[in-house]
From TrEMBL:
It comes from the Eukaryota. This is Cadherin domain-containing protein. Gene3D superfamilies: Cadherins (2.60.40.60). One of its GO terms (molecular function) is calcium ion binding. One of its GO terms (cellular component) is plasma membrane. CDD domains: Cadherin_repeat. It comes from Candidula unifasciata. One of its GO terms (biological process) is homophilic cell adhesion via plasma membrane adhesion molecules. Residues 184-302 form the Cadherin domain. Keywords: Calcium, Membrane, Signal, Transmembrane, Transmembrane helix. Residues 1-21 form the signal peptide. InterPro entries: Cadherin-like_dom, Cadherin-like_sf.
Length: 394
């Protein structure tokens, strides 16, 4: 009895070994109808020529890849070609390869092109993933029109021609601040009419600024500011303008603009020392020149020899005496000839007209005529009796 039990035990152990001799068998030609037969041979410990079998007793297995809890790695966009990213140890004849996983509405050909930025190479007893081309985010955006944040690497391990493992790892491409903010054109210029209301936006720096850095996670341009204009304090525009929104660079009118006053100060051209900063606090400066424009907002002003200040409005009254029955141009006007000027800088032509004072009769008004261009005054119908006439000149 003892001999029989021993023989049976030996047979069972041998059977187990034969069952584990091959873990998996399939048809070499890829015929699925032959796969079942190959599996039968596999279970019997045999592998005919038309089958391909994986050795279940071999110690070679695909390495377990550990990239942390998030299965994520990161490289800078400026990393140089040849830089190693990670290594995979191998114990035998396993073969590793990789492809890029696709995400988002991006054409497949783009992902195929992006795969050339990396290379997986076997070196001795390891595979090494290295940078083959610098993943410059600005160049990628310019060529493919995508703001690349990461690449999904699908790492595949095969042993004896059988797929054993597919590992997924996310390779983040970290942006590097390579460029300072730029203004499209420098210096900047704009024109603002003097009657522009306080609080009105007159310029938006954000519409005239760019940052060439590609950063998928944020807008590189961070803030705008106005600084002291050191070149000429007299024309420093901070008295009249302010930065109402430093995120957009929105510049608003801060105080009422008076062209005539600014002209008298020699400051109708104002300057703002403005800056643009990125998220890394790299700052660029330029000058925004604001030309304040005159508008026709002031009435004409009369003047005489005693009031010659160009922008000063004078209070002028005229007096003239003529003899009875006089008819013609009145020359003896005190304090002088009737003259008026445009109080704006527009030099708008002046026209003259007459109307009666409140106590004057229309009949007396009709005896006078004023040249609407020169202001020359005429008595066209003589007075037969002494009289005093009050006229209003406009």
């Amino acid at each position: 009895m003892e001999v029989v039990l021993t023989a049976l035990l030996c047979f069972m152990l041998t059977a187990v070994v034969r069952i584990l001799a091959f873990s998996h068998c399939v048809s070499k030609a890829g015929y699925t109808n032959l796969d079942g037969q190959c599996q039968v041979y596999c279970a019997d410990g045999r592998c005919p020529d038309f089958c391909k079998c994986a050795d279940g007793n071999a110690s070679e297995t695909c390495a377990k890849l550990d990239f942390g809890s998030n299965n994520s790695l990161a490289i800078n966009e400026t990393v140089k070609p040849g830089t190693p990213i990670f290594t995979i140890p191998i114990a035998g004849q396993e073969r590793w390869s990789y492809t890029l996983g696709r995400e988002g509405p991006v054409d497949g050909s783009v992902w195929n092109s992006l795969s050339r930025y990396l290379k997986l190479t076997r070196i001795g007893n390891r595979y090494e993933m290295i940078v083959d081309l610098t993943p410059d985010l600005e160049a990628i955006f310019q060529q493919y029109g995508i703001k690349l944040a990461s690449l999904i690497l699908l790492l595949t391990c095969e042993r004896d021609g059988f797929l054993q493992k597919v590992s997924k790892v996310v390779l983040q491409i970290l942006p590097v601040n390579e460029y300072a903010p730029e203004f499209f054109i420098t210096p900047l210029n704009t024109k603002v009419p003097e009657n522009t209301k306080v609080g009105t936006e007159v310029y938006r720096l954000g519409d005239h600024t760019m940052d060439l850095d590609v950063n998928p996670s944020t807008n590189e341009l961070s803030s705008f500011a106005i600084w002291e204009y050191l070149a000429d304090s007299k024309t420093d525009g901070r008295t009249y303008f302010e930065m109402a929104d430093n995120k957009k660079g929105s510049i608003h009118v801060k105080a009422e603009l008076d062209f005539e006053l600014l002209h008298s100060l020699g400051a109708i051209r104002l300057h703002l020392n403005v800056s643009a900063s990125d998220v890394h606090r790299i700052t660029s400066f330029t000058t925004l020149t604001v030309d304040v424009q005159d508008v026709d907002d002031l009435p004409p002003g009369f003047y005489d020899a005693s009031c010659q200040v160009p922008r000063k409005s004078c209070v002028v009254s005229y007096l003239a005496r003529v003899p009875l029955r006089f008819q013609g141009q009145i020359d003896n006007i005190i304090p002088g000839a009737i003259q008026a000027r445009d109080m704006d800088e527009l030099n708008t032509p002046i026209t003259y007209s007459l109307k009666p004072a409140q106590t004057e009769t229309l009949e007396n008004l009709k005896k006078f005529y004023i040249n609407e261009t020169t202001g020359s005054l005429f008595l066209i119908s003589p007075f037969e009796e002494k009289n005093e006439v009050d006229l209003v000149i406009e």
